[in-house]
Each structure stands twice: as C-alpha cells, then as structure tokens.
Amino acid sequence: MASRRVVITGLGIVSALGLDLAENWNALCAGRPAIRPLEGVANGARVGLKIQNAAQVRGFDPLKHFQGGKDAQLDRFAQFSVVAARQAILHSGIELTQELREQTAIICGSAVGGQSAIEAGFEDLWVNGRGRVHPLTIPKTMANAGASHIAMDLGLSGPAFTISTACSSANHAIGSAFRTVRDGEAEAAVTGGAEAFFTVGMLKAWEAMRVIAPDTCRPFSKDRKGMILGEGGAMMILEPLEAAKARGAKIYGEVCGFGMTADAHHLTQPTVEGPSRAMRAALREANLQPEEIGYINAHGTGTPGNDPVESRAIRAVFGGHADKIGVSSTKSMHGHALGAAGALEAVATVMALVHGILPPTANFTEPDPECDLDYIPNQSRKMQIGAALSNSFAFGGLNAVVAFRAVPR
Amino acid sequence: MPDPVAEKVIATLASVKRIPADKITLDTNLQDMGIDSLDVFSLLFELENAFKISIPDDDVRSIKTVNDVVEGIKRLLAAAPPSDTSMGSASPAN
User: Fold this and answer.
1) C-beta separation of B16 from B43 below 8 A
2) Which of the four CATH numbers 3.40.50.10420, 2.40.170.20, 3.40.220.10, 3.40.47.10 does domain A6-246 have?
3) Among all residues of A, which ones are annotated catalytic?
4) Would you call B58 a catalytic residue per the annotation?
5) How many angstroms separate the CA of residue B48 from the nearest CA in chain A?
C-alpha cells in the first residue's frame, strides 16, 4: 500500500502538571514545574527513603472514571492509560464505527507496568506474613494492561500491543503507530504511554542508582543534580491525513519521521553517536532538512551524564544550525515519567507547533559550558516553527526520536 | 437478628463493587449486581482473608446468590475452625 501522511487529531494527557490538555499546556507555557514534596508512599520512612521530591499526579480520583469496582481492576498506570485515551478520542471528535474500531491500533509504552499491584503482593507475602497474594496481581501488573484496558473500554479491536524500552517506551510506541497507520495496517491509532511507579520498592531502586536530584530537576543547568521522577499518561490519535481531512477533523500536527538506534555501549552511560544516528534517521524518514527543525524537546533528564552528551549529539547532527534551535526539557516541569515520558513530551511538542509557543526548561539557573545550546531558560518563547523533534534515550542505550511537522497546509 | 457472617459478606461485596451495603440482601443474585469473574476472584480473596478460611474451587461454582456465599462460608467455618494461613517464619520487617 502507498505510504500515507499521518496526522494527529486528538490529544489526551494526565500528568503532574494537570488532569487534562488545557491544564498541562497552561503549566508548560507558564514554565510552572509540578515538582513537590513526595506524598503518599507507604513505609518510606521505615526504609530510610531519601527521595524528597517528585512530580506526582495530584487530585486524580479513579472513582470518577471507573464505576462498579472497576477501579480496583486497574493499576494506576492503566487508569492513566484509559483516561488519557478517552480524552484523546473525545478531543479528536472521531466517530468510531464498527469498521473503524476493527481497524484502529493501540500501541502504548510502559517501562514497568503495574508496580503497585506487584509490590502489594510482595508486601502481603514477606511483610504481612500472608500465604496468599491478591488474585488480580498478574493482570494488574502486566505492562500491556494499559493497551488492553483501552481496547476494552473503547471497543477498539485492531492491532494492539505494548512496547517496553524503559525511558524510550512511548517514543518507540508513537513511532511504531506512525508507521502502522502510514503503511495502511490500521486506519487510526491510539498511541502514547503511561507510567505510575511510586512504590517504596521502586523508589528505593531509583535511589540506589544515584541519579535523583535532592531538590529539583535543572536540565542543562550547571548546578543540575539529577532527575526528578514523574508519573502520568498521554495518548494521541493518529489518522491518515486524507481521512482526517475528509471528516473535517482539526489537525494538530503531523508525525512525519521516526528514528531508532542502539548505543551498543553501556547500560546507563549514553553516547553521542547513538542519539545522533537516531535523530538523523528521524530527519531522513521525515524528508526534513536539519535547517527545518525549529524546536527539540530534549530527553534532558537533568543528570550530569545525559545533558552534555545530548547537547553534543544535537550539535553533531545540526552543526551551526543547532544555535538557532530552541531546545528545552519539559522534564523540568512534569518530571521523568519513564515509559510515559515520550508521550508527555510529544504532547508538549505538538502543542508548541500548534500555538507557536516553545515551552521552556524550568529551574534553569546557570549556563554550563558543557551544554552550549539555547535551552529556552525558564520562560516560554513565542516562535512559529515548522518542524520539531522529540528525543527519548533509554537506559540500556535504546534511542528513539520522533519528528513532527506543523499542520500540513 | 444480626448474622455476623452475612454482615461481613455483604460488607465485602459492597466494598468490591463500590456500592452501599444496604443495596444488597441475602437474596441478591451476584450476576444481577454485575459481579463478573474478576470480581469473584477479588471477592473470594477478601472473604478468605476476612474469615481465615480456604474456599475450595468446587464450592465456588455453585454460588449464585449472596445467601449461597453466606451458607458456604458457614459450612466451611463449621467444618474447620478458622486457621491463619500466614507463614510462621515471616515477621514484619523492622
């Protein structure tokens, strides 16, 4: 089948920045971080949890979204998946006929699946001394629960699966969904990612990696001390351009390229080469010249290791044009939501294309000679751009870059 | 005359389905109140914990109403005194 252009017609998001698209975009434009003291993690003090701050989703009431006890059948990350997907479908105004339901794909990213369920099970066994574990532990923990619940909730029965590549999961998912729709394997797709992993066991595991900032996330800033963990979910609706036009849909942007590479180097230390090859691959598939890119939503974790290497990778791909690109890390506001990160950042990137406003890197205090790009410090910038990249680079050295273009004219 | 077993079963059902307990009577049919197979798993788990019993799979298949659950539990309680299923060696971590 002929290659088709693929556009975004709906966006849904739940993150620490807010419970819907408007709240998220307002916070991103205002450069207002949602990094606050960690709350509601049982037994943290008992095990000496040092992590102080996080970007947690506040005010999300599962009972508002799931009735008749259904809420208890979904771990928090799956709840985020479904709620974000419902928002995105509603936002798109798409009419889900039976035929379209059967031809709609669901491709989601999640790094760690339902951690609350599995950890509660271990707690029952080893702490509470119980001989039994809750019977829904397996179906709540599985990383594909998000995709499965979206399928059941919305009655979508096309190709559906979950991709788990740590912090690149959502970008791998969006890129795969783009190709699935482009190549005619589906007539629409729900794609993005969701993550919710604020259990004491997971937080202790992150703490042990010594990559978490004690205060806040300051990507590319000289005094950065690491990442701040986040949670949430974001989904977008992809459709072929012609179908979207035919139904008079509002088009928010185009997914036009995807690049993925492996560093083949180190579990946690990034390379310049792997990310640059991924960015080049995304540009190539998008048929974009480097000079056409006006914004990059960086992986920008705020760790000493990532930020200079990512800056060098961007410099390696864009040369002198790198100085004209606005580069920001919105993780400075919504935290690092692992397998959902690429999805939250795709929403930020698409909204930047729609509104001509580039979200900033918040909490930026001091330039670092090792990071020599324009990071849009602290204040969003009015700038109409034609195309953008969204970078995700995972532990394990798996890189995924998605290229977006402003609404085709 | 309050029946503590029935009260506990109804409270557990209400909690699993997130509905008020006064909507449930002994005659309520589980299927009619929207209990599906996943809810049954959760319900059995909660009841086993609440009554410190082990409910055999065979007993589960014949359950239709709330009263069936209550009577089944009473039979199990009469057949064997409540026993804790906890493992002797496990103790709360400090």
Assistant:
1) yes
2) 3.40.47.10
3) 167, 299, 336
4) no
5) 9
Give tens-digit pLDDT for A333-361.
Answer: 999 999 999 999 999 999 999 999 999 99
The parent domain of residue B60 ranges over 4-79
Pick the closest to residue A23 from A74, A59, A63, A72 (CA basis).
A59
CA neighbor of A190 nearest in space, from A234, A145, A242, A238: A238
| ipTM score over 0.90, yes or no | no
What number of CA atoms fall less than 13 Å from residue A302's CA on the CB side? 31
- CB–CB of B18 and A136 under 8 A? no
How far is residue B31's CA from residue A72's CA, in Å, rounded to a whole number?
18
Residue B27, both tokens: 């005659």
Query: Locate tokens 């557990």: which residue?
Result: B12
Q: Model confidence over A146-171: pLDDT tens digits? A: 999 999 999 999 999 999 999 999 99
Residues of A within an 8 Å Cβ radius of B? 46, 63, 67-69, 71-73, 125-132, 134-136, 139
Structure letter (DSSP) for residue A340: G
How many C-alpha atoms does A339 have within 13 Å on its Cβ side? 29
